[in-house]
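Dear all,

This email documents one entry for the complex benchmark we are building for the journal club exercise. For each entry we list the sequence lines for every component of the assembly. Then comes the predicted three-dimensional structure of the complex as a token string, followed by one or two observations. Please use this as the template for your own entries, and keep the labels exactly as they appear.
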Amino acid sequence: MEKVFIVGVGMTKIGRFYEQSGRELFSQALWKAIEDAGGVKPRALVVGNMMSSTLMNQDSLGALLADYAGLRGIPAFKVEAACGSGGAALYAGYALVKSGVADVVAVGGLEKQTEATTPYVTRALAQAADADFEVFYGVTFTGLNAMIARLYMQLFGYSDEDLSYWPLKMHEYASYNPYAQLPRKTSMKEILDSPVIADPIRLFHAAPIGDGAAAVILVRGEEKAREIAKAAGRDTLIEVAGVGMATDSVDIASRNNLVVMEATAKAAQEALRMAGIGVKDVDYAEVHDAFHVTGYAALEDIGFAPKGEAPRLFKEGRFQKGDKPEVNFSGGLKARGHPVGATGVYQVAEAVMQLRGDFPGFKASSPETALTHNMGGVSTITVVSVLRRWK
Amino acid sequence: MEKVFIVGVGMTKIGRFYEQSGRELFSQALWKAIEDAGGVKPRALVVGNMMSSTLMNQDSLGALLADYAGLRGIPAFKVEAACGSGGAALYAGYALVKSGVADVVAVGGLEKQTEATTPYVTRALAQAADADFEVFYGVTFTGLNAMIARLYMQLFGYSDEDLSYWPLKMHEYASYNPYAQLPRKTSMKEILDSPVIADPIRLFHAAPIGDGAAAVILVRGEEKAREIAKAAGRDTLIEVAGVGMATDSVDIASRNNLVVMEATAKAAQEALRMAGIGVKDVDYAEVHDAFHVTGYAALEDIGFAPKGEAPRLFKEGRFQKGDKPEVNFSGGLKARGHPVGATGVYQVAEAVMQLRGDFPGFKASSPETALTHNMGGVSTITVVSVLRRWK
């Protein structure tokens, strides 16, 4: 069967864009991706988005975004998997291309959170959790993750400071990323002085609220990909070598183990199996660090680190420049930002640019194989992709 | 490439189920489909839903429904395309199976509208229209369709009564359908005496608000399909011979022509092309008649009738028992009901049963080829499938 390649990527800066609508942001990202693909127009659109229904009062989102971008008529639909919507859109878009249902597909992601004030956004984000068995009782999404962070710290003996090396480093990376929402360095003092949102999670341990849109263009078959790469002036191809998705219970009370993200492990195994490689073959990764503990757990459950050891290894310098894998040079959700349903697409776009060598921020050491890890809910819906550079 | 078959279907009765949650309804439909498929369990779930975010306060819907049904862990995500969400889920699910990303996929649909009172449902339904350029000005979804109905009546010279033969017949069909929300006959007097919702659309010209869930099981390859059919005691196979999706502008003011549903025409052409047949080869169809005018326009724009003539032909007895195609023996959205994001999956399940000869309501004349037509918005997102019976 024909292979699937990513021939173009585009994204907006992440921020609080009160003066721009969701459709405007998305159109900018999509057209950057089309231009990056030498002008090839997608014949279908799959868009990852969580909160257009609750914050933008807008359904029919796929058609709306296709039309506004000047692509009226093409097949277009929205995929929702909470914060993993972008990854899920990639999963669906990959299948559309691989199956031949469409030969050129745009996979996009959009979130426009500044349509509402923070209390409404907090309520909308909580819809990633179980409405009847969790949110009904008043817990927020940060509250759920805080319980897991506390347990993780107790089980593995980490302090507030121990876990704070993650955001410290993410802010440093983001300071080089022109698309980042928080492109500035921070200090351990600033992190530890920042207010507690939900104990033990502080403001600087959590991803910010922001708007953003990203898109990647998928095509079917090496011949088509080479033709487009040539037109775009590139001599490398980026293959989507594997995609894996797995889920878990939405309510965390019925999990087997609160500090092991089973869906992450399953999705990673599936994507690596499809790509025919092992976890040790991954050169570069973008992982879903909505909170500091999530970033560490991702490293562990993907298989990059033994359980409970990621914070120690990270503090020692692992997963940083020159290591294998290098991780989150975008700045991660923490500092690049987390435009919810778009995040999974940002990660893929960033990984593609790192593989091509043209990421305009902190550069990886010429990786050949990259992995992206995107989650919805508290590791409820996870999508992992494996991308591979061809000569 | 391997073909895709539907090996099991299941649905709940449509109604106002205040005492049941969405996850309960969906689980019932999914397990009926699994049992109908001889017990084969899906390895992925794609669920069509429009309003879980607005009416159930629930995102992460795919994972939630998979877990509640006892299938924790499988890839699962929601597809949103307004009232066309069920059709869009079929489109995505077809690609997952066809590509081999998953070999057994459940495509489901769910809507739980009785979570809220009618004004809230009306507002949520309006999110199918353009939030910024239509709904902001106060129009409802029925209001938009009413403008089109009025124009259609003026252009083609039809009266209130002329268009009312559609609901008259739909109620008759629904009276035989054990799953229908309104399983009772009506009269021309009752229709014409019913209150106007948005002039010229009366209560009996519109689909009711209701809850419901449906699911179909897709598998990859004839061998697997034959094995399952045998285990389920059937000697026929149902192939998904074609799927087509197309979109239009969300706001109707920027359409080329208000009485021609261009997305319907495009999606139908694509599905028929993929199936290698013409519109004249279709024996049976389920079309999306959210309003009487929508049903007629669907017949015209799919290509079953010349533009403007469907009401006249229907009144004369065309598209009814013994004709080619026979249409909407379920009772249609009008009387079977319209559990929004599930409707497209109901249509597919009904068409499969008509092809197999085991639909428990008004029976078609042994069709070999069936077509389903599902729309989101005012013909904004349309999905057409072509199903074919194999011996």
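Observations: Chain B has two domains: 4-117+209-237, 141-207+242-390. Chain B touches chain A through 63 residues (CB under 8 Å).
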